[in-house]
Amino acid sequence: MLKPIKIVFMLTLTVVVLSLAVFFVEGVTSEIIAERQAEEIQEALQAIFPEIDGVSDTLTYVTDADFGISGITQVIEITNGGNPKGYVYTVEFTGFASTITYLMGIDTEGTITGYQILSQADTPGYGGQIGKSSNWTQFVGMSIETAGNGNFDGLSGATITTEKWKTSMNVVYLYHLETYGYTPLTPEQILQAKKDTLAGVAVADYVNTNPYADYGILAIDVDAGNTVVVYHVEFVGYNVADVNEYLIAYDLTDNTVIGYETLYSGDSEDFGYARMVDPANWSQFDGQSSDAMLDPTVDGFSGVSVTGSALESSLANVAIYHLWEFEGIKALTPQEQFEAYKEALYPSATTFENVTAFKPSNLLIKAIYDAYDETDTYLGAIYHIVTIGASYSGITYVEFLIGIDEDGDFTGFKMVSDTETEGRTDGFYTDTYGDAIVGDDITAGVNLDAIAGSTLTYNRIVTAIQQVVTYHNDEYVSRPDSVSVDNAELLLAFPSAAQFESVYEDYAFDNVIGNLYEAQDGSGTALGYVYFGYAAGNSGTVIEFTWGVANDGTTQELNIIVDGQTWAGAAGEYGFYDGSYGTVFATSTWLDLFEGVAIDSILSSPIDTVSGVTNTTAGMITSLETIAQYHEDENVGGGN
Amino acid sequence: MARKQKSLGDVFTAGFFKQNPTFVQFLGMCPTLAVTGSVDSAIGMGAGVLFVLLFSNVIISLIRKAVPREVRIPIYIVVIASLVTILEMLMNAYVPLLADKLGTFLSLIVVNCLILGRAEAFASKNGPLRSALDGIGMSLGFTGGIVIIAFFRELLGSGSITFWVLNDGTALGLNLIPADFQIPLLIAPAGAFLVFGILVAQVNKIKFRRLEQSEVA
Hints:
The complex is a heterodimer of chains A (640) and B (217).
Chain A: H1 3-48, E1 57-62, E2 72-80, E3 83-94, E4 99-107, E5 112-119, H2 144-148, H3 159-179, H4 187-199, E6 203-205, E7 217-223, E8 228-235, E9 244-251, E10 256-265, H5 269-277, H6 305-327, H7 334-345, E11 351-354, E12 365-372, E13 378-388, E14 397-405, E15 410-418, H8 455-474, H9 487-493, E16 499-502, E17 513-520, E18 526-536, E19 542-550, E20 555-562, H10 601-604, H11 614-633
Antiparallel strand pairs in A: 1-2, 2-3, 3-4, 4-5, 6-7, 7-8, 8-9, 9-10, 11-12, 12-13, 13-14, 14-15, 16-17, 17-18, 18-19, 19-20
Chain B: H1 8-13, H2 29-34, H3 39-63, H4 72-94, H5 96-102, H6 104-107, H7 113-123, H8 128-157, E1 160-165, E2 171-175, H9 189-216
Antiparallel strand pairs in B: 1-2
């Protein structure tokens, strides 16, 4: 009867020996497993709520609250010194084929900080896609409200799991809203957060040395250690009615771009907007130096070249400012460079008046500027010329300036920009290039030097200049012809004169002066001058008048030729109702104020307008003051 | 011994083709269908089976003379279950990602009929060396079988071949077919049957051709 005992013994022995083996292995592995699981939980928490601080944050595990039907199994309340910092939810819901568990972190602003599916066993390729992290990354930075309303990407081919997922997110949103609530960030806080993220450190307002408004820069922020600067910049793209805004961050230690982000684009949705907001276009500037950013090439803007090149020039402006403010190198913006070119063509000029609109148009001419010196004397014209360049493969452009002075001589040539092959046209930009034609008569031909390797461009430029010279001779009129005035009207302004001779050509042109006569006695000796002038009257009318000034500067009569003014509204001293004064403007005694006085007194003690007829009197005063100033500035009659 | 014993080489190679557990003996179908969604799970399952089968075969072979016939099956089960428990703990400690991926199927090695089958059919009748060789050979045959199934399922179903997943989650493998050209059905359970059926048909075709040839000869 040993058999049963043997059976029992063998069974017992096997079990005991193997149990010991299991016990031994467990002793070795249990610690590793426990450590790893704790680590996993910590890692998961860190991934779900990156701002968690293992040392100073307090975690409260809520598992027994009334979660209702929400599927929430646990909420970890993260607080720091009693202040709420965020919440991590563990939620279960039933998908198509399995129970799906996820972790979701929400900060106090209601922004989802992290998302992770902990477990799921849905059909691979269908509901099982929920286990792929690429389906969770969309939540990071999303508002819980957006996610709770189901505005996130579901799983393709898995409608049921997707629907249940969205339902679960919705109930969690509602639970969160009711239990903890949240305060969304203000736009300013969001902007600040974007600046901080782009810079990689917290940044604050920068105290600038040089003004930046002209560079399209709205604000500048730097970090405490002065290692990173973030520019908030605005520019106008294709849509001139709205702006584009972006942030660009430079590393201040090596002056390279460390990040770019578009904040806003007011451009057309499928065109400029789409290119501006596409993050794929944002990283292309990273690592570029501020020098390289002076002439940036923006990729990814094909088909929206207007916005693309506007962005390029905006980036260049920022780089120019950066070089100035942080590297001490003052480079000129394209606009400043352009102004410098104009000044180089007329070194003594103080003002450049854009007269393009007043001249006949020409396809080659982008703009015409008239140069005046400080005494308002006309010096000559500057033509801003755009012509087609040399390329065979596509249209290229060449932009340059030429100056033609009032004697019909060239004052120079300045290359502005071109889109020709890189490097070929450098010769045109040297400071001395245009010197060859300075002082040449424009009819004598264009004596510029050809640039080796760029002869075709050179030929285009010369041809364009020749055509503009023709335009200058035929169509650019330096000043309007003088308007002739009847002797009778002149005599009314200067009764003691016997004859009049127009001398306007000897003096500068002024808009309000139609002609200028010398008033002479019978033997041709000058007694004084008569101005034929214009003044703006009421409701778009023009008053024409003649006004005499004697050699000693005493004004003579002020004679209104064309009037059209209603004087009936004049009140007070110059009104008609007391019967003692004229009821029409031309006979009003108000005009007497300008007669028989020293002409400079009109400037030194201005005459008042008349209430009720302010438009008429103000226009008259402006015109007469302009003439008085002109009389003094132009030294009419040798001065007095 | 009345019966002529097979040579050691034959013992080792039997599982590769002639008695392949997957395609010929149809042993261990449960993991065959469940873990063949990707190559790395198949390799991991194969390694687990190799560990359990090798040790169970050796242990059972060693105690075969002491074990009373009446309780041999319960004792085999205790041996196998203990080994699986040890394997599970080791995998959880050192290759957690694989352990997660194999999940319950790791525990289910206990009831993998391949293991009990070899214990009963081979280890209980042969010495430890031969049993060890049989265990290794059968496991390799099993691993080869499920890796081939996994290869086709993963390649056609997910478009990739994943050889191993490191503990930090990095997959060592290749992505070959873009998403639009994949057949997700193949990584669903039904796909396992399809692929398995087609492969068994191929194996049988080869097997019968050999038989015919030997008859002709």
